[in-house]
Amino acid sequence: MTRIDIELRRLELPLVRPFRTSKGEETARDVLMARWREEGPDGVIEGWAECAADAEPTYFPETINDVTSCVTEVLVPRLAGLAAAGPLTVGGLRAAFASVPGHPIARGLLESALLDAQLRRHGMSLVDFLGSARRPIAVGVSVGIPGDIDTLLSWVEGYLRDGYRRVKLKIEPGWDVAPVRAVREAFGDDLPLQVDANQAYSAADIPLLSRLDAFGLLLIEQPFARHELLAHAALAARHGTPVCLDESILSLDDAMTAIRLGAADIVNIKPSRVGGYLTARSIHDVCLANGIPVFCGGTLETAVGRASNLALATLPGFTLPGDISATSRYFARDIGASFELVDGALVAPSGPGTGVDVDLDAVEDFTTSAQWVSVGSA
Ligand code: MG
Q1: CA dist 27 to 147, 195, 291, Å?
Q2: Which of these is catalytic: 103, 120, 166, 270?
Q3: Does residue 84 share a domain with residue 191?
């Protein structure tokens, strides 16, 4: 008989610098964590996972409150009785949730927490579980929207000094061609440079966005709304700046549809958004088979999400630098060990599961709310 309890902890980690995109500004990372705790014949084992949802549905459709209610009222009750036969498996979890449509972030949060616990039980790292091999992952930096060009240039200069190998500029209407031109003029044509619009444009802006072709960008990420695959396909059909999809890809089906429509030259895979690391690997596999390069996106992760994303990014299709910055880019203090750049790259931890030892004191200090929910035995 195994007893399973799941803790949902909402944390607030101060950011070292406000982060502004076309969707708004954050001064702290408001993040939900899940802690999977199993108590059985072998003792107690715990796993942690991080939720990508925000307080408001400005970026992902699911919010923190949506995830919390889905986990406590819909998903966990479906696990009742399953623990009687021994430790719950990821396959058992997926089968139990098969009748729940949507909610990939909520489902993925529990799956990732269980996976971390199970891997720790077996002493296996997430990298090994994914069938990959540890390697340094070249990482880029995502630069928010400052008030003026001079501030932008000073930020970029600082990040390049820190060792980042690729720069991603957040853009929005009124902040697109000019900042890209300024960064190109200041730092040269060899700087690997890309832009991310976070859905801020419409198909009517294709002529405007075409002006970015002159700057030799690696890609333009998610210029149009999430569901506007045909608009993205129209932009991609011009064969100008490669088109990358991010918010549009919430599932393996989304990825296959986008590829079939010609809407994506590149895909940004965010594991927590698509329902966890197994689905993320499936999307990677489909993209690799279709010659679509991928990179691993980020959402201002804590050490737990950062380590997991680094593990995923070791898979061979991740040929572009990921948005997996060093800890110091976002936080002065994290809930696990810091990740710092070495030659512009980060390396996934080698320990079991995510390899992150969660600092419970830090978790306590950052906690804004917490609740336990037990998996019933019948
Ligand atoms: Mg993006």
Answers
A1: 15, 22, 38
A2: 270
A3: no
